[in-house]
Amino acid sequence: MNHLFSILYLPVTVTIIIPAVILSASNRIAVGWGLGAPLNLLPPIVGAGVIAFGLALMVMTIALFATVGKGTLAPWDPPKHLVVRGVYRHVRNPMISGVIFVLLGEAILFGALALFVWFGVFALINAIYIPLVEERGLEKRFGEEYRVYQQNVPRWIPRVKAWDENT
């Protein structure tokens, strides 16, 4: 139940509720950017692809938090174990990256400047919050294990080759 609540409360609010309010307020609910055929197909195809990629990252992350970390994505019920498997062997913040991809995909899909602004604001907030708050908290909770992980796995740009903590 904690997982469901944290998913509904956090990613759903950021990727569905806030964008819906933004689109509603801007009276922008059309897809395709008003381009002529066949270019009008490009924004929906690209936007849907970016959204699908972001959702895949989010699902992988949530599953790893539950199975390996024994916690949720929510700050009030964080993973009890440091998760250094799967996509986390390539990048430290795949959950936020997934959300950012979903927001970018929505902005592309709807071609709404206000959604591009929301995407930028959310990305900027996390670019500040993660190193100043989240990473410090992880270092406190997991100590040397997190520091070694942090030195070997980048925050945003994924490693091509997965990091192996045993080497």
How would you concisely characterize the structure shown here?
With 167 residues, the protein is mainly alpha-helical. The protein has 6 helices and no strands.
Question: What would you say this structure looks like, in words?
Answer:
The chain is mainly alpha-helical. It has one domain: Four Helix Bundle (Hemerythrin (Met), subunit A) (Up-down Bundle). The protein contains 6 helices and no strands. Helix 2 runs parallel beside helix 4, helix 3 runs antiparallel to helix 4 (94-110) and helix 5 crosses helix 6 (144-152). The chain starts with a helix and ends in a 15-residue tail after the last helix. The model has no long low-confidence stretch (mean pLDDT 89).
